């Protein structure tokens, strides 16, 4: 159980982040549902959590903007106090074959997927370090392990999280806090809806378990990483991909 734990999930309004936020709430946590634009979805997620053993607040903040993340920290401290568990989940794609990719496509994905991870971890570093067994959990992707056609920008951000996770694991270890990473395969969310049907079918054929992941398949693993049972694991990458090679 996660009673007395404050967990902040970036991009908690939809998809995988919403499933993670709900799962942590179901286990008794105080959950911060961060979002950028989907206010109604974030409020609905918070309402679901309030109906379980947990309690929730929503905070609008674009994670790629440092000042907005600082304001989010203040709002969270005022309501729940310091953060024990940070889940860096917010992420975007801007897919294009590399020769057509613009510098703007590149920067946009870097700013959210890696810049947002820097901003949130940096703003909350003291909380995580000083917590009783703080937890930093980064949401990467099988695409960071394998690469993927049309996703040079996205794959680079997702591989970047591996080095970031292992380094933060070292920098948090002396205080007993951990940093780990989940690398989901292809998950049935709004992000996958942008992939053409023919490409999706090709991907599905490469998944030994013969289905896309449900957001809940990832959320259960994140809940394990957030809890006590993972105390002696740090710097790890957990693949949640239906058996895909990498
Ligand atoms: P999604 O359904 O598109 O949801 C993305 C979430 O991120 C939304 O809650 C969105 O909030 C939030 N977000 C986007 N930009 C943001 C920003 N600048 N600041 C704050 N929040 C922001 O995506 P998903 O499939 O759940 O993906 C979640 C994470 O899992 C991402 O890091 C993704 O790379 C990773 N992942 C996804 C898959 C997959 O197949 N779906 C596979 C592996 C890994 P708003 O709606 O409020 O803008």
Write the layout of secondary structure elements.
Layout (H helix, E strand, L loop, with lengths): L5 E4 L5 H12 L3 E6 L3 H12 L4 E6 L5 H14 L5 E4 L14 H21 L1 H6 L4 E5 L2 H5 L5 H22 L4 E7 L5 H4 L3 H8 L10 H12 L10 E4 L6
Parallel strand pairs: 1-2, 1-4, 2-3, 4-5, 5-6, 6-7
Helix pairs in contact: 1-2, 1-10, 3-4, 4-7
The protein binds NADP nicotinamide-adenine-dinucleotide phosphate (NAP).
What would you say about this model in short?
With 246 residues, this protein is α/β, with parallel strands linked by helices.
Mean pLDDT value = 97
Structural class: alpha/beta
CATH architecture call: 3-Layer(aba) Sandwich
Summed up, the helix count is 10
How big is the Rg? 17 Å
Q: How far apart lie the N and C ends?
A: 33 Å
Which strand order does the major sheet show?
3-2-1-4-5-6-7
User: Biggest sheet, open or closed, and with what strands and sense?
Assistant: 7 strands, parallel
Annotation, overall tally of beta strands = 7
Basic shape: globular
Bound ligand species: NADP nicotinamide-adenine-dinucleotide phosphate
The topology string of helices and strands comes to EHEHEHEHHEHHEHHHE
